[in-house]
Every structure is written in structure tokens, then in C-alpha cells.
Design goal:
143 residues, Heat Shock Protein 90, globular, alpha+beta
């Protein structure tokens, strides 16, 4: 884990192309978020990590990389794989069992998207949350 003088914290893992690693990785993300003081965000972030990793393993190609970073005002998750296909949200019926991952990510994160490298295959799916910022000069108001 890295922390810069500006308060940016980062962690990154290269992961095996195996659905079995998702549970362990979700637990690691929970530990990192607790250590960063972001436990309130953990449930949503862990669910998003699971969805993005499942998408990378199922539809992408290795290598797969998960990175988390937190600035004082923002927390972001990035999952990169090297598959050529662009992810897409599916128009599903009520009885569909699979295919809702990107819709779940969009519902939980404040922002999300996909970036592609300038050259070569692959993509990075990302999700970000705005964090409340601490202002030491602000005085609490009584209501």
C-alpha cells in the first residue's frame, strides 16, 4: 500500500484469471477500506469489485489487475483486463439470472465507465465515489 504526501492512498493486485479468486479479493478489499477509514463504503465497493472481476474473468483476457485508490475527496476502483471486447449493459427480462453486473455498478457508484488503451487490446472498467471532505474551519450548526 502506498500513501503520498497529498493523502493519495493506492493498492494494486495482479490477479489470476480464475473466478475462485473473487471471494478472497473481496475480503482483501474490505480490509483495505477499513484501514483507510472507508468502512461505510465497504459493502457497495466490495459488491462492485466482485461484479467487475467476474466480468473480467468471464469476458476478458488475462492479465487482470485490480487497483484501488483514495484521495481525500474520492475513492475509485479500477479493473483492467486485456480482452478485445467492449463491455455492454444488456436489456434483460425480469427472470434473467445473469447479466446485471454493469447495471449494479452504475447503481452503486457515483460515476463509472470504461477506458481503452490508445494502442492494443484491453480495457479498464472503473467506478468512483465522492467522499465527504473534512473542513476544519467549518463550524457545526445546531438544528
Amino acid at each position: 500500500m502506498i500513501e503520498t504526501p497529498s493523502g493519495l492512498r493506492t493498492v494494486c493486485w495482479d490477479l489470476p484469471d480464475d473466478l475462485a479468486m473473487i471471494g478472497k479479493t473481496r475480503r482483501l478489499v474490505g480490509v483495505v477500506l477499513a484501514g483507510w477509514g472507508l468502512a461505510d463504503l465497504a459493502d457497495d465497493a466490495i459488491l462492485v469489485v466482485g461484479e467487475l472481476l467476474a466480468n473480467a474473468v468471464t469476458y476478458g483476457e488475462p492479465p487482470i489487475r485490480l487497483s484501488l485508490w483514495a484521495a481525500p475527496d474520492r475513492f475509485c476502483i479500477r479493473v483492467t483486463d486485456h480482452g478485445p471486447d467492449q463491455p455492454r449493459r444488456l436489456d434483460l427480462g425480469l427472470d434473467a439470472v445473469h447479466g446485471r453486473g454493469l447495471s449494479i455498478v452504475a447503481a452503486l457508484a457515483h460515476e463509472n465507465g470504461v477506458t481503452r488503451p490508445a494502442t492494443g487490446p484491453g480495457k479498464t472498467l472503473w467506478a468512483c465515489w465522492r467522499l465527504p471532505t473534512y473542513n476544519p474551519t467549518r463550524t457545526p450548526t445546531n438544528t
